[in-house]
Amino acid sequence: MTDAETETGNPVLSVRDLTVTFGSFTAVQDVSFDLHPGRTLAVVGESGSGKSVTALSIMGLVELGTRGKVTAGQVLFDQTGSGDAVDLLELAEADMRKVRGNQISMIFQEPLTSLNPVYTVGNQVAEAVMLHQGLDKDGAKERALEMFNLVRIPDPESRLDQYPHEMSGGMRQRVMIAMALSCDPTVLIADEPTTALDVTIQAQILGLMRELQTTTGASVIIITHDMGVVAEVADDVVVMNRSRVVESGSVYEIFEDPKEEYTRSLLAAVPRLGSMAGTSEPSRFNLVAD
Amino acid sequence: MSDLNDVTSPLVSVRDLTKRFPTPGGMVHAVEQVSLDVGHGETLAVVGESGCGKSTLAQMIMRLLKPTSGRIELDGTDITEIGSRAMKPHRRKMQIVFQDPFASLDPRRQVGKAVAEPLLVHGLASKGSELDATVVELFEKVGLEADHVNQFPHQFSGGQRQRVCIARALALEPKLVVADEPVSALDVSIQAQVINLMMDLQEQMGLSYLFISHDLAVVERVSHRVAVMYLGQIVELGDRSHIFENPQHSYTKRLLSAVPIADPRRRQDRALLSGEIPSPVWADGTSPTLVDHVEVESGHWVASED
Ligand SMILES: Nc1ncnc2c1ncn2[C@@H]1O[C@H](COP(=O)(O)OP(=O)(O)OP(=O)(O)O)[C@@H](O)[C@H]1O
Ligand SMILES: Nc1ncnc2c1ncn2[C@@H]1O[C@H](COP(=O)(O)OP(=O)(O)OP(=O)(O)O)[C@@H](O)[C@H]1O
Ligand SMILES: [Mg+2]
Ligand SMILES: [Mg+2]
User: Fold this and answer.
1) pLDDT: is B54 or A212 the higher one?
2) CB burial class (10 A; 0-12, 13-18, 19+) of residue B61?
3) What's the count of helices (H) and strands (E) in chain B, helices before strands?
4) Cβ proximity of A133 and A215 under 8 Å
5) Ligand 1, closest atom to CA B162?
6) Interface touch B188/A278, C-beta < 8 Å
7) Assembly ipTM
8) B55: which chain A residues are within 8 Å (Cβ-Cβ)?
9) What beta strand segments (E) does A149-257 contain?
10) Is the distance from CB of A171 to CB of B51 less than 8 angstroms?
11) Cβ neighbourhood burial of A286 (10 Å; 0-12, 13-18, 19+)
């Protein structure tokens, strides 16, 4: 996709001046960004800067699951690219429920808390597939098995019958990913999707997301602390610090010509493989002053 | 296998440690005959494929999971089978930072109390302003603020919760910290700050770390030695420079070459894997082949491949 196309095409998702508060604390302040069809937008930045709260707001989950309040802003969703977008923040919960997990699905940051401990993982994935894709029980189980294979869960057939606590951290994360990808979403929001994965399986997961994009034209928002992952997959990058967007631009602009001091300090702090060659003792990181 | 480690008088010594889980689909060989030592003041990193048994190993060392077989010694005492009373004086010496921070915090308890509790339980402090000050100091060390102490776990971001768990583990000034992905939810600047703190404590108090991480650049930075695990077994173990500068096992090489580079102009096209996925689950009457280790240079052990 060329830059000209992106500029003229309608964004599939446009977050405008979003502000979210928890009591007197403002977790997200005037956050705006556009997600274009088929593209990958990375949201990076400080721990606690509002990345997950922004994602939960798009999903309509911040007022539902927490004491947060969206006090201003819009989340415009234009599934067909027609130009007449709906503001997801204005949708009734019943309508939002159809969007969630169907057109927009999310991989949550902490897999153990978003999986139900008393149901097998196979049941949970099949349940999601039945709900959103209208498959019958057998069809759903087959789809779940297919997804487990794609995310490289070993022995997928017997793993379907396991409970979350019987799986490793990274396997649970892959179950969440399987669930989110199974419904072929228009927009996938992935909040730290690969923190529990080794780099070989991480590469597989990032590849799967790319495949989803090329076959269905899906768009992806990925929240991550891993700048290697950003460099590998992102088209555009939004940098957040202290509840606000401090800088946004193409992945090349952000990596090669960062304008803001915060972005520069973030990039400078990235640990690089091979930096310790020729030494034997561990070594502290040089801290860049805030 | 028992000479895989030549650390003199190690703090922790693990020999032939094995954990198997019977499941309806077969026996899961989660950890198979693992031997390793962690020296005083040493950081031993454990890396490997997701599901290769790292957390299971960590939990056995912490005595949170009973080994199927094998032995664990702490400071020369065999702690594999000893009862909880005999364990009490040793318990303080080992702390763990769990992989899943949310699940390891009580949702109904303010996080300051969670950090203070181990100090109270071990009689190292009594309730009052001094304890409160200690907790605040710990919070500030991990980059949290003083008024965070009165909040509940759900009111934090993922990375903030992870820091609460780190503060809790450090509170008792243990000798060994088993850190299971301790910095995976932190942005790079706070990650650097927390890792520097961990290194400072190591220098000041001679702390040892068993450091489990998928982030190889961080591992390269913090570790003295590195163990590489694959399907429950150690496939390569050596000094940090052995593993990073002279990797020998095919899995170690595969791992190092898959690390994404933080430069958008150096993207790599990686083909999707398909076909058979290696699994630690074995049907009745079958079991994995145990690897043999060869010392390729002093202190650098590699599993033979054929
Ligand atoms: N349920 C809640 N109640 C009160 N405060 C909250 C709640 N959820 C989040 N916050 C606060 O909102 C801020 C933003 O949190 P958020 O989870 O969006 O951070 P983040 O950028 O995702 O950080 P991380 O990288 O650590 O996951 C944090 O300061 C957090 O303490
Ligand atoms: N209670 C259990 N019952 C059955 N199998 C289990 C149980 N606990 C762990 N396992 C299995 O043991 C194996 C090792 O899991 P472990 O959590 O130790 O992996 P890990 O190396 O920590 O992986 P990750 O990097 O994904 O966290 C996995 O196949 C897992 O499914
Ligand atoms: Mg978050
Ligand atoms: Mg684990």
Assistant:
1) B54
2) buried
3) 9, 13
4) no
5) 26
6) no
7) 0.90
8) 168-169
9) 187-191, 219-223, 236-241, 244-250
10) yes
11) exposed
| Confidence (pTM) | 0.93
pLDDT digits (tens, 9 = 90+) for B175-221: 999 999 988 888 898 899 889 989 988 998 899 999 999 999 999 99
Q: Which residue ranges of chain A lie beneath pLDDT 50?
A: 1-7, 290
Neighbours of B86 (CB within 10 A): 11
CB within 8 Å: A22 and B241: no
Token pair of A220 as six digits: 């992806």
Closest residue in A to B221 (Cα) is: A282
Question: Ligand 2 pocket check: which of B18, B23, B46, B52 to mutate, most ligand atoms within 8 Å of Cβ?
Answer: B52
Contact call for residues A168 and A201 (beta carbons, < 8 A): no
Alpha-carbon Rg for chain B in angstroms: 20
The answer to whether B275 faces chain A, any CB pair under 8 Å, is no
Residue A161, ligand 2, Cβ within 6 A: no
- B236 inside 8 A of chain A by CB: no
Structure-block tokens of residue B266:
């150096």
Phi, psi of A207 (to 5 degrees): -65, -40
- Rounded to the nearest 10 degrees, the angle between the axes of helix A169-181 and helix A121-133 is 10
Residues of chain A contacting residue B29, judged by C-beta atoms under 8 Å apart: none
Q: pLDDT tens for residues A143-200?
A: 999 999 989 999 999 999 999 999 999 999 999 999 999 888 999 999 999 999 999 9
* Residue type at position B102: F
> Which residues in chain A have their CB less than 8 angstroms from residue B228's CB?
none
Q: How far is the CA of A171 from the centre of ligand 2 (A)?
A: 8
Q: How many CA atoms lie less than 13 Å away from A55 in the CB half-sphere?
A: 27
Dist CA B72 CA B37 (whole Å): 10
**What are the tokens at A267?**
């990039």
* Alpha-carbon distance A247 to nearest alpha carbon in chain B (angstroms): 16
In this structure, the residue with its CA closest to atom 8 of ligand 1 is B155
Given a cut of 60, whether residue B266 has pLDDT beyond it is yes
pLDDT class of B6 with cuts at 50, 70, 90: low
pLDDT, tens digit, 9 for 90 and up, residues B130-160: 999 999 999 998 889 999 999 999 999 888 9
